[in-house]
Specification:
About 40% of the residues lie in helices and about 15% in strands. With about 375 residues, it is of the alpha/beta class. It has two domains: about 240 residues, Aspartate Aminotransferase, domain 2, CATH 3.40.640.10; about 120 residues, Aspartate Aminotransferase, domain 1 (Alpha-Beta Complex), CATH 3.90.1150. Helix 6 links the parallel strand 4 and strand 5. Helix 3 packs parallel to helix 4. The radius of gyration is 21 Å and the shape is globular. The relative contact order is 0.16.
Length: about 375
Amino acid sequence: MKPWLGDEEARAAADAVCSGWVAQGPRVSEFESRFAAHVGAAHGVAVSSCTAALHLSLHLLGVGPGDEVVVPSFSFIATSNCAPYVGATPVFADVEPEDGNVSWRTVERVLSERTRVVVAVDQGGMPADIEPLRRLCQSRGLALVEDAACGAGSRYHGRPVGTGADLTCWSFHPRKLLTTGEGGMLTTSDAELADRARRLREHGMSISAAARHRSRQPVIEEYLEVGFNYRMTDVQAAIGLVQLGKLDELVLRRRELASRYQAMLADVPGLRTVRDPAWGESNFQSFWVELDSDYPLSRGELLTALAEGGISARAGIMAAHRQPAYSGHRHGDLAVTERLTDHTLILPLFHTMSERDQEAVVDVIRRAAGLKPWS
């Protein structure tokens, strides 16, 4: 992944610096409202990372010790960590083989009387099938949080992902399409949750620092509850506003490249490329392929062959339940998670990728399978 950054972002960041307002201020507020509008949310709360947004979500929902939070193991470890942050227990659900996401079927298997929240991930930009999950959660009195860290620009039944959950968390890390360097966003249709999230991200303060400084009268703030320091800076938001203007173009280009990968690899035996699910369109934040026994090389051997060809690929999504942090943690059958973790790899995909770049990747894969190179 290479972020698509240039002179426009540099000028926006410089303008923020020269304005003298570099902490959370007017650019953050503008970024919140414009991003929320872009994804079809009523409210946006900018924070320091998607991890912060996940933590805030469970805190806002009152999750605590003795509670269980259903999460996929097949995700970056931040998804699992949000439960221990509030003293709760993560319960790992398996994923569907086609898209690598939890479904109502995999979640239902691990629900218990202690379950309070289900966290669904749009893994690699693949939109999760949220509506059946939402119906399941509503029938059990559970909250639904969407980890859309990779999902900006993906669509679910024609709408931006994220609108079907009680709270949705977004990432602006450099591996995501829209980046602010670091940073995240919490979106929701619930005005009270949004207002409380804004207080909590700023130490639980009764009035924001920006509002206090704008006031022409002395303001003595109060700290209404124990909060956190999860603020975004105006420098980051300035970059984010430029990036938001590029998002549609980014998605279009990545989908073109993904379609080309799919065509060039369609006849490779033992290799499956990730594809759009029936219910939506991916932004292809990650383009992953799965190898089976018909492919001549193992996943590790293919990664080595790609590296020797000057190509940076990486192993597929991690399985959190295998990490030392969760050693001995109870979990059920995670057969699909383990298969995908062991047999998938992520191929290079970025906005400025040329056809020649892409052909170089494909030729290594095709030659290893005994096929003619594409180029």
